[in-house]
Structures are given as C-alpha cells and as structure tokens.
Amino acid sequence: MTNPLPAWSALQTHYEQIRNEQMRDWFAPANDPAPTRAERYTYAGGGLAADFSKNRINDATLKLLVQLAQEAGVEKRRDAMFTGEVVNPTEGRAALHTALRATEPNAPFHAQILAEKAKMAKFADAVRSGAWTGYTGKRIRHVVNIGIGGSDLGPKMVVHALQHLETPEISSHFVSNVDGADLWRVIEGIDPEETLAIIVSKTFTTLETMTNAHSMRDWFIQHGCPESALAKHFVGVSANPAEVVKFGIARDNVFEMWDWVGGRYSLWSAVGLSIMIAIGPQQFDELLAGAHDMDEHFRTAPLEKNLPVLLGMIGIWYRNFFGSQSYLVAPYSEALHYLPSYLQQLEMESNGKQARLDGKFVDYATSAITWGEPGTNGQHAFFQMLHQGTTIVPIDFIAVLTPEHPLADHHPKLLANCFAQSEAMMLGRTEEEAKKIAGPDKPELVPHIMFPGNRPTTTLLVDALTARSLGALIALYEHKVLVQASVWNINPFDQWGVELGKILGKVVEADLTAASADVKTHDSSTAALIARARAALKR
Ligand code: F6P
Asked: Where are the catalytic residues (predicted)?
C-alpha cells in the first residue's frame, strides 16, 4: 500500500531497517547509559505529558514522521480548521469546535457562542439551585439526556468522568438506544415530577432520539403532567430549532448548536448542557479552558514536540507500516470508563473512510479499529492476547497520578499495574529467562511462559482528573484525528457511511410492521429474518 509522498517511501525503507530491532536493547544500559531514552521521548503540552519512549521509534523515525506530516500539509489543514475554512467539503461546512472554547474576541462566531453559553448557564444555575421546578413545584432531581452518537457519548463520558464534581442534588441519566429497555431502565425508577428531559439532536430527525423523546413525552402525560406544563420538563438542543418547536418544546427552551459543529465534536456546545447542569457553569468553563490549552499547543508547538501530531503520526507508523489493524485505549481510571467508546466514534466515524478529498479511492489503510476498557479490568480479560497473541496491538495507557476519591491506598496499586503492563509489553520474556523460571523439571513449560515483548505502548500522564485536564485530553484526541486525516488525505468531518443502513432500516421497519408485506424485495436472508420477526411480533 502506498502514498505518493516522499517521506512515505522513506518510512517504508526505514521500517525494513528497524522492524527487527528490540526496544529492550534500546533501553539497555549498554546503549543508553545515562539513561536518556525516556526523557528524550517524553513531551508535554496542554497540561498533559506523554511518554512515547516505549514505542518502536528512534530519532530517524520521528524525523521522517514529522516530515510526512509536513508533506501532507498537516499545518495547513490545522490552520484552515481554526480559521473557519470549509474543511468539510462534502457537506460544505467549516468544523469550528475549537471556536467553542476560544477566548479571543476575534475568534469565529465568538459573540454568538458566548450568548448561547450564557443562556445555558442561566438555565443550568436555575436547575441546580432548585429555582426551576417541575409541574407540581418540586425541584429537579433527575436529568435525562436523550440523544445518540455525538449527542450522547461526549456528555455521558464527561459527566461520568467528573462525577466527583457533580452536584449531589441531581442524578444524570443517559438514554440513547432505540431498544425500549434503555429508556425503561431509567424512567421506571424516577419521579416525573422531578425529572427534566434534554432532547439532544443536531438534526432533530434521528430515529432513536425521536422515538425516545416521544415515549418520554407520553410518560410525562400518563403520569399526570398537563400538556401545558410540559415546558417545565423538556428542553431541546439542536441545529434545527424549527423541528424542536414542532415537537412541542417551547422556543425559549431550545438551545442552539450550529452546522459548523460536528456531532462527535459537539460536547463543548449546548450539547454539553447535561454536563453544565451536573458540574456547574464554572467547571464547564474549565473543561473548555483545558481544550483551549490543547488547541493552543496544537496550533503553536513545533511539530516535533506537538502531542496531537506525535500521537497521530505514531498511530500512522503502526497502521500503515507495521500493518496494525487496531489500537487499544486503556485508561487506568474508572472515571474514564466511557472514554474508549467516545473515542470509537471520534476516530472511526471520522477516519473510517475510503474516498480521498480529491474523490479518488485510497490504496492505503485508514482508521485503525479503536477499542478499549479501563485497567486493571482489561488485564484479567484480554491482555493475555496482547502479551502473547500473534497480533501486535499498540496501546495508549492513560494514568491519572492523583485519585479523585478518598481511597488513597488503592492508587499505588492501580498505577503500579499500569506502569508494569507497559514495562512487560516492552521487555517481554526471553527463552533464557523463561528457562530459569521453568527450572530443569519443567522444560515443556518454556514456550508457554515466553513473551515476545517489543509491543509498543504510549503512556499519557494526567496529574489529576479535573475538568481542565479532561478538556485537554479530549482535545488531544480530536486533533490527533485531524493529523491522521491529513496524512490519509480524507475528510474527517463527514459520515456518509452511516446513511445506507438508515435508509434500508426504514424499508425493513415498514415491512416488519405493515399489515401485509411483500418481503420479496429483499434478499432471501433478510426476507426470512423479517418473516420470523413478523410472526414473533404478532404473538
Ligand atoms: O448516524 C450518525 C450520526 O449522524 C452521528 O454522526 C451523530 O453524532 C448521531 O448520528 C446523532 O445525530 P443527531 O445529533 O443529529 O441526532
């Protein structure tokens, strides 16, 4: 697989030269007596630090990767995004999530953004203080965010991560799936008189969200809320306010986002209303400030010291030169439980593309599969394969150095596991070492207790999980996506790949629910599935 850029072919040659080199040798005192490798490959930015030293890289690799970023026009694309150029040409839009956290008065749409944020803050304060009441005068104790994809994953991830900053007066709930079980598990346990529903949908046409929103509306009415009082229990967030009003939400209760905010980049906008209610407007500003710190770092740091650039380019190194199919995100933090699923949308919906910006098809790999689970849980499930399996899966470990809870004696154990895993991945265990452990009585054990090692990992260090550091961490990955998209010459801001399933889904739904259906329009497999389900639904 090729890319015409000169640095790409230089990297192919370089890969052949270093593919058999062992990281444990690079770290060995004979080769790194001071030692300096960790220091040389650890960089800081936006309040975070990243240790890239346990990667299959040396100075020549980094030089070539930075050269590739330059040749691919990463800086040009970055600047075009920040200044509001149409960087999403298939939808004719800018991608200005960075403007949502900009502090400079001349930033694009600044006044409009501040006005909407002030409206959010006024509302969030009223809900948090208890001044905003439900139809029987009770304060709001449950906020239910109804949305899916970018209208769910970001707010859910952040609210969970910053639970230690959440007001104890209000519980946050997130409902996304059209599976009624998702909404039911929330509403069966809460009091409608104390519940506020936030319907979040950029388009306000999404099947799942609209279905849940209508069921939620019915639930309020069935429990005695007069239609005239629904305004006390429903607010909407959308780039399509007319549709929100049509649904029956008062215009005053509509919070706007704009077409230049992509769904998966939208938690910084009114889509983050549930976050603001949970942690308060001041902490929400801190979240934005952290993202802005990373924006500034990305915009101004030289490419060779630029965290999003390095993270992105090292990802390209494994995806396009080592042929890695996937990469793992392992936050050693329960608070970051939902970060991997948030990143799945961010990375795979952005960069899972086959068409280049010029309309030609790529002949190289694009987005890796992003997956993950918090440590230490993953260690007792799939880490076996990461250590001894036949596939190399690069890993991003995320370590939070100080805990956000009072059980301080757990923390050294947690961090120890995180650091030990990256050490084990790098070192492995040689045959000689395995023989010593197996001893003379058990030579047959040797192959089973050998570890190949040389498995690449990056360790991201967060001092403490604050709104600010979380903002920076999220923005780091957002910009990593742009860096990779630039090299792959694809548009990370559209998502045409979700359309076909939606269109066919409507046809299948009609055939499932119509009084009589002509399922012959489907292939025999789909037709048989529909026929079985029709029979079951009639029971
Ligand atoms: O189907 C994919 C998608 O369009 C995502 O890109 C988006 O985040 C999600 O659906 C929800 O869309 P909306 O906010 O318009 O309901």
From this structure: 349 (proton donor), 380, 502
User: Per-residue pLDDT averaged across 253-270, rounded?
Assistant: 97
Ligand 1 binding pocket includes 266 (Cβ within 6 Å)? no
Question: How many angstroms separate the alpha carbon of residue 148 from the centre of ligand 1?
Answer: 6
Question: For residue 215, what are the contacts with CB-CB under 8 A and spacing of at least 6?
Answer: 180, 183
Could you tell me the distance, in angstroms and rounded to a whole number, from the CA of residue 150 to the centre of ligand 1? 6
Q: Domain range holding 45?
A: 6-90+287-494
pLDDT at residue 106 above 90? Answer: yes
For ligand 1, pick from 498, 499, 504 the residue to mutate: most ligand atoms within 8 Å of CB.
498
Answer yes or no: do 321 and 452 share one domain. Answer: yes
Q: How many domains does the chain have?
A: 3
pTM summary value:
0.97
Whether 264 lines ligand 1, by a CB cut-off of 6 Å, is yes
pLDDT of residue 1: 52
Looking at the structure, tell me whether residues 458 and 344 fall in a common domain: yes
pLDDT at 2: 65
Residues 6 or more apart whose CB falls under 8 angstroms from that of 50 comprise 42, 43, 44, 307, 310, 311, 458, 459, 460, 461
The verdict on the CB of residue 149 being under 6 Å from ligand 1 is yes
Residues sharing a CB contact under 8 Å with residue 234, sequence separation 6 or more, in sequence order: 196, 197, 199, 216, 217, 220, 248, 249, 253
Dist CA 274 CA 200 (whole Å)? 10
- If asked whether residues 233 and 311 sit together in one domain, one would say no
271 domain residue, yes or no? no
Ligand 1 centre distance from Cα of residue 151 (Å): 7
End-to-end CA distance of the chain, in Å?
A: 53
Structure tokens at 14: 């370089």
- The catalytic site residues sit at 349, 380, 502
Within this chain, do residues 137 and 69 fall inside the same structural domain, yes or no? Answer: no
Q: Which atom of ligand 1 is nearest to the CA of 150?
A: 8
Give the nearest ligand 1 atom to 208 CA.
16
pLDDT for 155: 98
Q: Ligand 1 in contact with 379 (CB < 6 A)? A: no
Ligand 1 pocket mutation pick from 175, 495, 502, 506 by most atoms within 8 angstroms of CB = 495
Question: In 338-410, which residue ranges form alpha helices assigned H by DSSP?
Answer: 339-344, 350-351, 383-388
Residue 176 in contact with ligand 1 by CB distance below 6 A: no
Residue 266 lies in a domain: no
pLDDT tens, residue by residue, 109-156:
999 999 999 999 999 999 999 999 999 999 999 999 999 999 999 999
What is the arithmetic mean of pLDDT over 281-291?
Answer: 98
Q: What pLDDT shows up at residue 519?
A: 74
Residues 241 and 291 in one domain: no
